[in-house]
Amino acid sequence: MSRHRFRPAALVAGVAALPLVLSACGAGQGEAPAGPEAAQVRIVVSTDAWGSVARAVGGDHVQVDSIIEGMNAVPHGYEATPQDATTVGDAQLILMNGGGYDGFMTGLVDASGSRAPVVDAVEASGLEGVPEAGDRGHEGESPAEHAAHAGEEGADHGSFNEHVWYDPATVQKVAQQLADRLAEIDPPAAQTFRGNAQTIGNDIANLTSKAAEIGRAHPRARVAVTEPVPNYLLDAAGVQDVTPPEFSAAVEEGTDPPAAVVAQMLDLFRTQPSVDALILNTQTQSATTDQVRAAAEQAGVPVIEMSETLPDGAGDYVQWMNGNLDALAEALNR
Q: Which controlled-vocabulary keywords does the entry list (predicted)?
């Protein structure tokens, strides 16, 4: 599935044109929902990757609605609906990835007039190179295009990798922020929220240790990726991504990489020693990525499939990342 560039101005205008729909949500912005689930805090998240984290922190005390759920959509090309606007307007707590990845959420929050607190994962990450709030680069351009322009102009803030849910440390920080915000909204359950966040912290520590063990077992491992989606996890494992940057940037934008760049990518499987594995983003496949996969399979290089949203059967975030690390270890052990 090719990815189409997100157009924030058009989306905000489209959502803002729904006043009659949004007026029905105003009562929910600062109040707990009525009815049998009155004790549950309503959390709205941009994707089910973060929705899984929110559920783990909130437990039975929260109702989590993910705007994007399943493998059939990615935030870069997502177009918000009137129902999404209603959902965001009713939220008591909002969780978004940030960094330009799920910019449609900013449009929905603005259009709904929601007063719910917002947890922004990129801002919480503390990672180097986080773009300043509101920094969208040239008008109408996407984050990857902004990265290219930033390099041309000598700026140092345009190359940030916004896929921060693949960074275990960021997930732990987001879990703690969620626990703090939930404790403010539902004080009687504060101990539960903070205990759940601590449990997630322990699970994250185990993930980090597991990644480090993979790195120690394969100290010179080299992989290629179709997109930089899993790169924070690779960093945790000490595995080097040797993909030509122009290739992964083009795939991320749903465009065709130049022929010379494609040739560089294919050479990673043809030359000796070849890379140890190819990591394929299953949600942004194209004729070019199919060509790369075929080259890897022909060379006997293992192919690992990773995704941007929670795969079917993954269970929760920790199980998902454990599965990704298991797949990486299996491929490198070959």
A: Metal-binding, Signal, Transport
